[in-house]
Amino acid sequence: QQVTISGTVRDAGMSEVLPGVTVLIKGTTTGTITTPDGTYTLNANKGDVLMFSFIGYMGQEITVGDQTVIDVQLEPEVIGVGEVVVIGYGVQKKEDKTGSVVSVSSKDFNKGNITSPQDLLVGKSSGVVITSSGGAPGSGSTIRIRGGSSLNASNDPLIIVDGMPIEGVGNNVSGSSNALSFINPNDIETFTVLKDASATAIYGSRASNGVIIITTKKGSKGTPLKLSYSGSVSISTPEDYVDVYSGDEMRKIALDNEGLFDPTYYNLLGTENTDWQDEIFRTAISHDHNFAASGAYKNLPYRVSLGYTDQTGILENTDMQRFTASLNLSPSLLDDHLKVNANAKLMSSKHNFGDDGAIGSAISMDPTQPVYEEGADEFGGYYQWQNHGANLGTPNPVEQAMAVDNQSDVIRFVGNLKLDYKLPFLPELKASLNLATDYNESDGHNNRPITSPSTLSEASGEGKLNDYGGTNKNNLLDFYLNYNKELTESHRVDATAGYSWQHFEREGNSYTRVASGNIDDVKTSWITENYLVSFFGRLNYAFRNKYLLTGTFRYDGSSRFDEDNRWGFFPSTAFAWKIHEEAFLKDVDFLSDLKLRLGWGITGQQDIGNDYPAQAAYTLAGAAGYYMINGEYIPTLRPETYDPDIKWEETTTQNIGIDFGFLNNRINGTIDYYFRETEDLLNTVTIPSGSNFSNNLLTNVGSLENKGIEVGLNFVAISKQDMSLNLGLNFSHNKNEITKLLLNDDSDYIGILYGDAFNGITQVTRVGEPAYSFFMNKQVYGSDGKPVEGLYEDLAGNGGVISGDNGNKYVYHSPAPEYTFGFSARFNYKDFDISTSLRANIDNYVLNQVASGASYDQMQQIGYWKNMPTHLSKTNFVKRQFTSDYFVENASFLKMDNISAGYNFNKVAGKDINARVSFTVQNVFTITEYTGLDPEVDEGIDNNFYPRPRTFTLGVNLTF
Amino acid sequence: CVDDLDVKPIDPNTVLSGNLGDDPENIERALGKLYASFIIAGQGEGHDADISSSDDGFFTLARAYWNLQTITTDEGICAWGDVGIADLNTQTWTPQNPFLTAVYQRLSLSITYCNDFLNTTAGTSDPDVIRYRAEARFLRALAYSWHMDLFGNPPFTTEADRVGKYYPEQIQRADLFRYVVDELKAIESDLGDPGYSYPQADKGTCWMLLSKVYLNAEVYTGTAKWDSVKFYTDKVIADPAYSLASNYRKNFAADNDRHHGNNEMIFAFAEDGVNTQGNGGTTFIIQSSSDATYIPAEYYHGLTSNTNWNGNRARKQLMNILVDTLATYGNVNVPADDTIFAQNPDTRIYLRQKRSLDIPSVSSSGDFGVGVYKFTATNLDGSEADNYNPTYACTDFPIFRLADAYMMRAEAAFRNGNMSDAADDINVVRRRAYGDNSGDITAADVTADFILNERAREFYYEGQRRTDLIRFGKFTGDDYLWAWKGGTFDGTSTSSHRDLYPIPGDEISANQNIKQNDGY
Questions:
Q1: B72 partner at 20 to 30 Å CA-CA among A60, A296, A517, B264?
Q2: Residue A520 pLDDT level (bands cut at 50, 70, 90)
Q3: What local confidence, expressed as pLDDT, does residue B99 receive?
Q4: Closest by Cβ to A699, choosing from B2, B12, B165
């Protein structure tokens, strides 16, 4: 018998009325939605069950009895509870995690014209520093999790895409600048960053630098077909140029300083005022289109996506086109006992790299000269300096940028098939098999016409042709068993054990010759491989859902090492205590989460660049490395250095962390302290002469430490029906220190020096200091506060030449930031939203080599003139002072990476189409005292990298 | 699947130690490396150098060795500002000097390559391989003799030592002398006959190295061995395989090898524009001595690509030795308008006056000083070399020429008091230089200074000068001063401990068994 039921729905805590709550009669499609005053009316039969549901609140079910008024108070859901995070070989409830694991999902990703997955994550997680290598289209980034645990081996984290560990960044195929470019950022669902050893140690010998797990989007069961399109148009402009002298200023400097210059070369100065940077940079327009269809066909959930990106760089003649396609099928078979998850991703890209050397040339090129010169047919119509032997003039930057043909085509396919089978007789036991393959092929060329000057093509008037290519193959088989059971109310176990096999093969080739003929042709090719075979296991045990214990191990075998050193055992353990579940805190209402985490583990590093470091082998010479034996030129055969005893690096990590949440987790956060110690550090050291086949050997000799603090905070500042404001803040501090470097201790050992014969030695890795510290002469300043040219403190006290003398240099800061901050905010009001991300690095130091290379004596060269940055007017140096600490600058900065505003249109044109329009600005502003162009310099030496543009993006999303 | 971990390199360019013998050509290829390690950077095209350093080209063995032997003396001075060059110019080097570090490490590396070759070929009965093994032992002895000459007390390893991570023991100079001499005597019979397979070492090469170490025996051991010098130079001079080239310059042109009929060339490290390329060796000597204004390489040497490095030139004192101003100009200064010293009858003068004979500062432009163009990348007759390359010379880097056998025998005769024998040998060399007997000297003219000067006239820019000056006691100290010696314009006295180079700082750090040389 039908009765009319009415009532009001309120928030249980605040007692505010809740509009928009769905009220549904269970088992039917009959229902309604509460009105703006929180009330509803609906007809139901006695005995029906009314289901009240609303996002952000826990659902409630009430059986209709005799009453006609049913008022309901909904309890807010504790934020984050019930979410799962992906961990190695499985998933875990977020509240049960024992390690330092951060998950960033699509709603928190950076916005704008983003073509590279890692850019989504910049600034979003404490302890993760991502530095793009510059503003070139499709360029890659350096990712560092908790500093680097290695010196010579890779410091890149292990990246796992849908269960497939991909080849490290350093092993990219030639012609591909970004290891992750095969993933369309629009296809990514979450990034999970595993930071401490208790989380990463299940990846054993590859886990020392952290693990990033990328999960792509899937279709879900029981959902109808959903189509979506997103597209954007972006305009990128150069933010700023390096301030250099104009033609007029240059002429004045030349004429005013006859003492410095040889006036017989004044006739080489031209009459122009060419702004070379303006000539090679441009405003660039890019566009991006993505189409996705997802849903379920009967029992087959699917998702298909297609993407096309056409990105144009701000440097002339640089661009990238990329096509991506992905398919995901995730059916459940055999009465849900067999779950299948199949992924296929295909990427095809065309990359035009141009010549970013033009950026440096545009700073050095004489501004008194024109871009084009009549009659200069020999140089393709461009003005060029005449060739005076080894004193090669600055190439015309416009010719350098425009005339090069430097392109590559890359194809990549990554696919996996994962089968999870729940045993019918023992449903808590699950067997998983994952088969995956990664195939990556490149084909590129880098050519110069015969009209290019010899500085660019190496042989004057002959041009250069270079073809290259590469193929990487990576195959994986994982098999593991998982047993997950609540034994009694107090005991829960989740155990995993498995086997993994992975094979990496890389090959490459290069063919270089002059364009005018066939002398000097150099063909090289190489092929190399390695295998990893592993056994692993994990046990999670929960006692009374309050005390959580995790133990993992991995037993890794790598083909890189000799039989005796091949196998490594990497254990970890962690303990977590959910303090807020204790009786004494049960009634503390404002505390929704409090957990203490303790973790310890050992991880390794085996990505040391060479696949055969322990084997005695010989390498055959290429052309030009022949010698005459018995009257014939034959290729020589060289024994290569090897260390029969080489083995893993081992990093021991200790981590202590606290997770906390207040007010239903509206305020939540984590604090972690870690101490990481790497032993058997692989270092390329100078070895005793005569003991091996080179002067240097990569061997296990050193140790280093990283310690740091990380804080992550999230704050739901406003959470109302029409309005919300979410804030996120993270902070990290890491301190790196080398503790041992040599085979035998030598207190006089100067350290590993970095630099070259031209720019001098400017960095050192030394015991007691951070890796890659700057190593400079100590500048003496005059009473006017200006650096006195060539005058440095005599630190060794021996007199003599001090400038450039390593014995007189000292360690002066390091490129790594002391502190990093990330801040993000997202504000919604009705259909309008706005979000932003900011980032700050504190006490990161940069050697401004653009400025240190500037001196008056360099303006005039034999046969040509050279421009300088106007920074020179500050120092007035006559000779270059490459090793002065004056040029090591504090490059602390605050950057607004992006700001984005969007508006959602529901039911466009009265149809079931939702639209969203957004406008984003990237690289909005930078606050810094650094005098160079951009304080964010990968590796800390500023030497005219491709500048990051400011980009304005208009985006449209349609779903229907 | 665990067996997958037993990988062997799959690159066809990589040969495993154990598989070396599978292909008999590999033995010859490995032998080729022993030679090539002295003259080029690595495995081709200037890339993939054998040692890591800040510049592959700078630190090839022949080039860095030439620097240590030349720009530290009156013969050469380099204008470049690269780290370590000014130290060598002025005899103010420290153990950190990258050139001496490179020479030290490369010599030891060549020795290690030879040790490995001897290990992999041990027990052979193949007569060719037995000869190759003798050549490897010769090259090892050559490397040790350079070590002995430059550093005195190097680390000592033989084929009995393993390869890996360990600390070789140091050997003392006099002990090393005995080892080198014993080795050379032991391999003499296994080597090919004189001229058998140039540019590989043969019996004549072995006699020359024996002569050379005996010539300097007093420096190395305190005991002179002039009779032994005579014994081995006699063998060389008597051998019909060798004869002086009729034209002095034949020894420094692209066709200076035995294959092009130069029977004066006893041993050289081969260079080739196509097959054996590098920025060391004669390519370096030619390019670094060329400049756009006075000695353009395009014009003088036929090199048109990456030319005119404008670094090396001679100091005024070398010019004064070569250009006999007494005889030629009546003991007055060379007139500035005679830029090529055209009035001098000695045909060995390939010098050119630059902006000024004086060099105003150690690092002043290569346009100052006395230009040298003795080595050339063209054939003797000016034609293009067989394997011509616009960047790299085909000219072999001479180590032993027959003229040196005459000069060494003359010096031994002089020391033994046989002045007329000495004069006769010197006159053989001078007659070729003057084209007739107009430059002949008499027994009365033979003095220590004359012999030292004659060696400069004959062998300048061939990497011998430092050793010669030390043997005559004139490298350090104030007996003989030249421009910028010790760091002053007129030259100043330097300490005698600099007759030996220091053991590089890198080695002292790396090997606890190595003791630094006195004074450093």
A1: B264
A2: low
A3: 96
A4: B165
